[in-house]
Amino acid sequence: MFIPPSHPPPVLNADQVIELARTGYLPLELPPSLIVSLQELLRLCTDLFSQDISTKERQYPNAEGTELGYYHIQNEKEYLTLRHQYVEDTATTALSLTAAKFWRLAASFLYRLLADLSTALDIPLQTWDPLLDGCLFLPRSKAEATPTLLRLFNYLPDAGAAEKHTDTGFLTLCIGTASGLQVWRPCLSDSTSLHSGDWINVGTQPTVLAGKTLQWLSAGRVIAGLHRVVPNPEGRQSVVFALRPSLRHPKLDLTPFGEPSMVNLVDVWKGIRGSVFNVNAQVNIRKEQKRRLQEKGWTSSERGGTAKLVEEG
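-> structure tokens emitted (313 positions)
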């Protein structure tokens, strides 16, 4: 009798699993189908960003701050955040269909990485089912949306940037068309310092980053990957897919993660989001968020622990 495997085929070897867990990031080669989908998505990105601002704002109304729709930061960057499909006209429908395909392939890819990490951490794969409910496909409507998102960036030449930060979810796939993304590689031999390490230029290499929710669930066995975006003379576009927790099942049993207790996942998510400031918000909003965090005694640091880091948003 044929018994199907309990896990999908591994993507990562043992060394790569250790690298991702200890540094919070991992450059990877993408599956061919995902590369093809990415190229089509980038083509539509170029078409989108070539339009005037009023058209983009009309097609993708901004909602929930930076979390949905078109967002423009003068003299820095613009971006579109998708958390559900848009089918208002021919242009938005075409982008939604392409985004939906990319979303499905990227989510499947990151799910397989979670499976590899789960094997190494002795976490049953089915533990992720309620945590990813509704996250693996682009939802049809706003009512069905989860925190998981696909974000398309256009960074301006010599100006487009993002301060050092860690992401808030499980895993994030980052792909850029030019240099700009840098990741923090901690000095793994120096366990006495949280600040020893170097900034590494990623270039155009697809890179996976671990997020704060994964760090929290794994009790620090996987650290969140610190990264930033620095300006380059040509500017750049990038595609960011952030796999975040579904909040459809608030009661979370931590037993599979090694802690026999129940928590409210919504409260955990709010706590993680509330401990950071948003590097993709308007400059004045960032400053105010920083001020409030400083008043609470929360400061940014280059490594985890109890210090609070800025978020990808």
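The chain is about 30% helix and 20% strand.
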